[in-house]
Amino acid sequence: MSLKASPSNTIVVLGGGITGLAAAWELSNGAPGDTRIVVLEQGESLGGKLQASTVGGRLVDVGPDAFLARRPEAIDLCKELGIGADLVAPGAEGAYVWARGRLRRLPEGLAMGIPTRWVPLARSGILDLPGLARAAVDLLPTGLAKRNPTGHSRVGRDTSVGELVRLRLGDQVATRLAGPLIGGINAADIDLLSAQAAFPSLLDASRDPGSLMRSLRPRPGPGPHAPSSSAPPPAAGQSLRVASSRQDLPHGAATFLTLRTGLSSLAARLGSALVARGVDLRLGSAAHDIQAIEAAYHAGTPESRGPSPDPGGLRQRPGGSEQSTGWIVRSTSGDIAASGVVVALPAFEAAAVLRSTSADLADELDTIRYSSVSLVTLSFADTAIPDLPRGTGFLVPADAGMIITACTLLTSKWPLLKQPGLSILRASVGRDGDDRHLSIDDEELVEKVLHDLRAVLGVRARPEEALVTRWPRAFPQYQVGHYARVARIDSLVAALPGLALAGAAYRGVGIPACIGSGRHAARVVLSSGVLSSGVLSSGGCEVGRDPHLERGGS
Prior knowledge:
Layout lengths: L3 E2 L4 E5 L3 H13 L5 E6 L10 E4 L2 E4 L5 E2 L4 H8 L6 E2 L6 E5 L2 E4 L4 E2 L2 E2 L2 H7 L4 H8 L24 H9 L1 H16 L8 H4 L1 H7 L5 H4 L40 E4 L4 H13 L3 E4 L3 E7 L8 H4 L10 E2 L9 E5 L2 E5 L1 E4 L3 H8 L4 H8 L3 E12 L11 E3 L8 E6 H4 L8 E8 L12 H16 L7 E12 L5 H13 L4 E3 L2 H4 L3 H17 L8 E2 L4 E2 L11
Helix pairs in contact: 1-10, 1-18, 2-18, 5-6, 12-13, 13-16
């Protein structure tokens, strides 16, 4: 095929998870009308971890089942898709932690697992007397460790969440509260987890020579959406929007939200909307390499250049440079000439496809570690758990000797899943440093989970149904120095015009953060000028594409 300059530009999005779909949505909003948008997803379904399966006669999310409501990105997207009215809050409140031999309700006044008030902490029974005494020292005018711990940081201003909490509040607060809550959100070891990346307000508060607990208490002012001064500045071209999205929702005070049809339906609805807009969604299509198109090829007219020695009339430079004005995306469904590319893949997959373009960038991406988790969803007859606690679920500290890290009481949390005589539970297994679940089969994993549930909930019978869902390398680990690494990645990407990275590996692991990351990456590509420069385009055709390899195109 002979390629030529054309106003019909192409942007390729690598990855059909929520990040990639959000990027495609933003592109479909902001790109010129003649722009072709192609999404390549190597799996057989869209949504990434937003997946569902049937358990106990109900369609149950087997990935994330809710998102944080205080960030605006997911709510805004639902409104744009016309499903804002379908958002629902949990039907139960309160959660527990396994401590000192039984479930204990989490105390009021926690800031992401850090107590801000001593009396509710004491009443909870989570800490013993020495642990409570150690935490109370923080409130004394001349309390222990009233100093700036970041002076002892291993990497510049950053330090670990565990180091800060242990220094100011003691080991029991770190192990029994911060570990299960902050570590649980990230499937992380808090002694390795970057405070700057995971909990910037904790890093800010740690600089206060007074009480850490008092410093973390809510203050009147901008509210929870205001950024902490510890957070890195937005990436180039990124604007920070303060959320006002919840004000017109009937459940505006909710901490978490989902859709009536489950969170996985967000990906399905978004995919359908993209197809309606003419976006080319390809399932079972994996990108394996990205190469820059030589800018010199674009000088003059195709006729003045004469014949090219490269197939399809392209000259390519594997290393790429700031002179490059386009990309060749090589995939299992053929090669695509693109004006811009959004790489919405896990960091290790992004490293693989970008290595021939920038080895330095690939090396930085490969340093981001990941942890693996498994979810075990179980349905029980109500008589099997006669004393099921009221609330959304419970957390398990790493030192409890159990394989489970948490358990969600799904039919309590989401009443729409409830049916007479049946309860559905979902146990989480795996965190950074604990990969025991990876070496055992599904049957053994279910048995180990049941063993723990018998100890915690007094389960008396076998489950009616059990489903194991494995998510290998699912959680990027924001280890100490993470934002310094992200800054180096940003610098390397800036030398690749028309290319942007997005996803959980960089500035947030939650659904709203991923949506925001995808949309921002799309805006970076749109603002890079590649669409207005008459870059090389196939006029909507691929180089050497085998149509038999395409599945799910629109």
